[in-house]
Amino acid sequence: MICRTSGRTVVHAVAIAMAAMMVLTACSGTDRTAASGARQPPALFSTFITGDARQVEVLADNEGRPVYTYEGDGLLEATCVDSCAVTFPPFLFPDIQPSAGDNRLDPGAINLIERDGGDQQVSYKDRALYYFSGDDLREPRGECSGGRWRLMDLDGNRVPCP
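RE: above sequence
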């Protein structure tokens, strides 16, 4: 289903994402066959535990890169553009390689937001997701930048600053 919100197109992407990821898996040469013999679709997300005293489990892409929400965005809205998007690039679909995911996440909560120019930005629980250009795998460094960037927990909540 596609709908317009605040001048942006939102694609409810469960079926689209699953179909696209199956194509990516078929093209990747990765064998994702379960014990039952059925092909398993890859996932967009993985998780990791923050290394600080909070020990919070947060969302990452399937390679372990932390993803962030921006407090300036509304629901199903992506407003970080231009120079903002250089520092906090959008998590675009499909700029990832398929891999195993976390079955605790709600696949029905994954949506795509169409950005100007036609790119599809991934959202979870109606919040647009971004990377931070200074991060390493499982090492978030953009958290609380400018007081407006937050990691996201598995329930789709913004994680408070340390």
